[in-house]
Design goal:
Length: 591
C-alpha cells in the first residue's frame, strides 16, 4: 500500500464510528501498514536502547555474542557509567522544576498567582517527582525523555484531572521522516494489558477480539513479562493523528484505540474539531544530545559506551593473565612419570622414568604499565562524564574547609546544570500544554489559597475563571509566560538574593514599604510560617496602636472640654466687669 493511499485511507477512516463486530478492516489495515513502516525504522533504535540499559546495569557481558566468545574467561565490570548516571540523576532530582506563572502586567498578578497554585496542586495530585525520576533515567540512559500531557477522566474519583506523565521511550514511536514530532503523520503509543482489562473496559467487544499480540516482540516492553504459554494479554495500540485545515489554517489532533483487530475508540466522531483545542500531539520530546534530522537524541551511555567497553576488555586481559600466571603447570612427556604421583604434592619421593621429560611452565605476567593504563582509562571516563570526586561528595587534595568543599562541588556540577536546563526546557513546554488542557477540560470548582501583599486570601477556581484569566477559548494565551525555577537553588544564589532583600529592608525600615511584602521575595525554609507570625504581630501592634490612639483621642476630647469650660468662665468674668471700676478705682482694662 503506497504512502499516499495509506494516509488517505486513515484520514477517511476518522469518520468511522466504532461498533462491536465492525472492525473497520480497511481503516485498521492502513494503520497497521503505517505502524509496520514505523516499526521497521525503529528496530535499530530499540536495539540501541536495550544495549544502553545493559551497559547502565553493567550487564554488557550478557549479550549472546559476548557469552559465546568469553564463556570461559573472566567478565569484569566496573560500574563507572552506572555511578555517573546516578550522580547526575541525584543532582537533577535536587533541582526539581517548579512552574511559576509570570504576569506581563500588574493587573494579571493575582490571576497568575492563582494559576501557579493550580499547577502546583496538579503536580501534587499526579506525583510529578516520581514521573521526573523516570524521565531523568530515560534522558541520561536513552538520550531523550518523553512527557505526555492530557486529561484523565478517571482521576479524583471520576471528577477528572490533568496530568503530565512519563512515557517509556521503548513504548512509543514518532514519525521517522521528520525532526519535529508535530510535523509527523502519526504517533504510536503501545501498551500491553491483560485480557481481563479489555473485557472490563470494553465488555461489548469481548466476543470479537482476535490476534493483536504480534505487533512488537514480547520482550520489547519496559514493563511486565509473560511466562505463560496461554494468551493472557493483548496489545492496545493508541494512535494519534494530526490533520490540517487549509481553510482555517489550524491543526486538529485525533486519537484512535485499536486492540484485537477492533476499532475501540475514535475521538474524531465525538470531537471532530480535535481532541485538544491546542491542536498538537500531546507529547513533549526532550533530547539530551540532539541527533540532527531526528527528534531523538543520545545520552551519557552513548557518549562513554566504547571507553567503558575497552576498559572492561583490558581489565579482562589483565585478570586472565593473573589467573594464568598465578598457576604453575607441568609439561610431561608421555610415559615419563605417573601423573597421579605428580599431582600428589604430599609424596616426598616420586619415581620418574625420564627426568628430562618433565618441565615446569608458568605464564609471564603483563607489564605493570598496562594496569596503570587501565586505571587511567577508568579515571578519564569518570572525569569526562562528570563523575569526579567533588561531584560525589568526596574530598581529595587536602581540601577540608567546608566552604571550599561546597564551592568545588558547585563548580564540579557544570554538566548536571546544563542537563537541568534541558529538563527545564521540556518542563516549560509541558506546563504550557497543561494549562491549555486545564482550561479546556476543567469544569469542577476548586479553592486555592495564595498570598497577596503578604496576606492569605482564598479564591474559587472554575471554568469561568479560566475564561476570564486567559481571555477566552479562541486563541492561545499571550498575556502570561511560564518560567521554571529550581526548587532547590544554589546556596550562593539564595544567600545573594536574601542579602539584597535585607539591604532593601534596612533602607526602607519604618517607611513606606511593608516588611512582609519584601519578605515574600526571599527564599528560605519556613518562610510562610514567619510571614504568618509577622502578620499576626503586625495585627497585634496595629490593635495596640489603635487602642492608644483611641485613648489619646478621649484625652484630647476631655482636655478640649476643660479648655472650653475655662474659656467660658474667663469670658463671663470679662463681661461681668464690663469696663467699670472696682473698689480700688482701677478700671477693668487694667486687668
Amino acid at each position: 500500500m503506497a504512502d499516499k493511499d495509506t494516509m488517505t485511507t486513515i484520514y477517511e477512516g476518522l469518520n468511522i464510528t466504532p461498533s462491536p463486530g465492525n472492525g473497520a478492516e480497511e481503516f485498521v489495515g492502513a494503520i497497521q501498514s503505517l505502524y509496520d513502516e514505523f516499526k521497521t525504522a525503529y528496530t535499530a533504535e530499540w536495539d540501541r536502547l536495550n544495549d544502553n540499559e545493559k551497559m547502565y546495569q553493567a550487564k554488557h557481558w550478557d549479550t549472546s555474542e559476548a557469552k559465546v566468545t568469553n564463556a570461559n574467561e573472566p567478565q569484569p565490570v566496573t560500574p563507572i557509567i552506572f555511578s555517573t548516571v546516578e550522580n547526575v540523576k541525584s543532582d537533577l532530582i535536587d533541582e526539581m522544576p517548579e512552574a511559576v506563572i509570570m504576569p506581563e502586567s500588574t493587573r494579571d498578578e493575582v490571576a497568575c498567582k492563582v494559576l501557579t497554585r493550580v499547577v502546583a496542586q496538579n503536580h501534587e495530585a499526579f506525583d510529578y517527582p516520581l514521573e521526573l525520576f523516570n524521565l531523568t533515567h530515560d534522558l541520561l540512559v536513552g538520550g531523550y525523555m518523553i512527557q505526555e500531557v492530557g486529561w484523565d477522566k478517571t482521576m479524583h474519583n471520576g471528577m477528572g484531572g490533568v496530568f503530565i506523565r512519563h512515557v517509556s521511550n521503548k513504548n512509543i514511536m514518532f514519525d521517522p521522516l521528520v525532526a519535529n514530532i508535530q510535523d509527523g503523520r502519526a504517533v504510536f503509543k503501545i501498551e500491553r494489558l491483560p485480557t481481563s482489562w479489555f473485557q472490563s473496559h470494553y465488555p461489548e467487544y469481548a466476543e470479537h477480539f482476535s490476534g493483536g499480540t504480534d505487533l512488537v516482540p514480547n520482550d520489547h516492553f519496559a514493563f511486565g513479562n509473560v511466562d505463560s504459554k496461554e494468551q493472557q494479554y493483548m496489545i492496545l495500540l493508541e494512535v494519534w493523528i494530526r490533520t490540517f485545515d487549509p481553510e482555517n489554517q489550524r491543526y486538529s489532533v485525533h486519537m484512535v484505540h485499536i486492540a484485537g483487530g477492533q476499532l475501540l475508540e475514535n475521538s474524531c466522531v465525538e470531537k471532530p474539531e480535535g481532541y485538544f483545542y491546542h491542536g498538537e500531539y500531546p507529547f513533549v520530546v526532550t533530547p539530551l544530545y540532539p541527533i540532527k534530522g531526528s527528534s531523538l537524541g543520545h545520552g551519557i551511555v552513548d557518549m562513554f559506551k566504547n571507553p567503558q567497553l575497552y576498559a572492561d576488555k583490558l581489565n579482562q586481559i589483565i585478570l586472565k593473565n593473573a589467573l594464568m600466571s598465578g598457576r604453575t603447570r607441568i609439561l610431561i612427556r608421555n610415559g615419563a612419570a605417573d601423573l597421579d604421583q605428580i599431582r600428589d604434592f604430599s609424596q616426598e619421593v616420586v619415581e620418574v622414568n625420564d627426568l628430562n621429560g618433565i618441565n615446569w611452565f608458568q605464564d609471564k605476567t603483563l607489564p605493570g604499565y598496562l594496569i596503570t593504563h587501565m586505571m587511567n582509562m577508568q579515571q578519564a571516563i569518570k572525569e569526562e562524564a562528570g563523575s569526579n570526586d567533588f561531584s560525589r561528595g568526596n574530598t581529595t587534595g587536602g581540601v577540608t574547609a567546608a566552604s571550599a568543599i561546597t564551592a568545588l562541588q558547585e563548580a564540579s556540577s557544570k554538566r548536571s546544570r546544563m542537563e537541568s536546563q534541558v529538563i527545564y526546557s521540556g518542563f516549560k513546554k509541558a506546563v504550557r500544554m497543561e494549562l491549555e488542557v486545564e482550561r479546556e477540560f476543567e469544569f469542577q470548582t476548586r479553592r486555592v489559597e495564595i498570598t497577596v501583599n503578604g496576606e492569605k486570601k482564598e479564591f474559587s477556581v472554575s471554568e469561568a475563571f479560566f475564561q476570564n484569566a486567559m481571555d477566552g477559548y479562541d486563541k492561545l494565551p499571550v498575556e502570561f509566560i511560564v518560567s521554571v525555577k529550581p526548587m532547590r537553588e544554589s546556596r550562593f544564589t539564595k544567600l545573594s538574593n536574601n542579602e539584597l532583600i535585607l539591604q532593601i529592608m534596612t533602607m526602607h525600615q519604618g517607611k513606606d514599604i511593608d516588611t512582609a511584602i519584601l519578605m515574600e521575595a526571599m527564599d528560605f525554609e519556613g518562610k510562610d510560617l514567619i510571614l504568618e507570625k509577622l502578620r499576626a504581630a503586625q495585627a497585634q501592634s496595629k490593635a495596640q496602636l489603635m487602642a492608644q490612639l483611641a485613648d489619646s483621642e478621649a484625652r484630647n476630647r476631655q482636655l478640649t472640654d476643660e479648655n472650653n469650660a475655662m474659656n467660658g468662665a474667663v469670658n463671663e468674668m470679662q463681661m461681668a466687669l464690663g469696663g467699670g471700676l472696682n473698689m480700688d478705682g482701677i478700671s477693668a482694662e487694667a486687668f
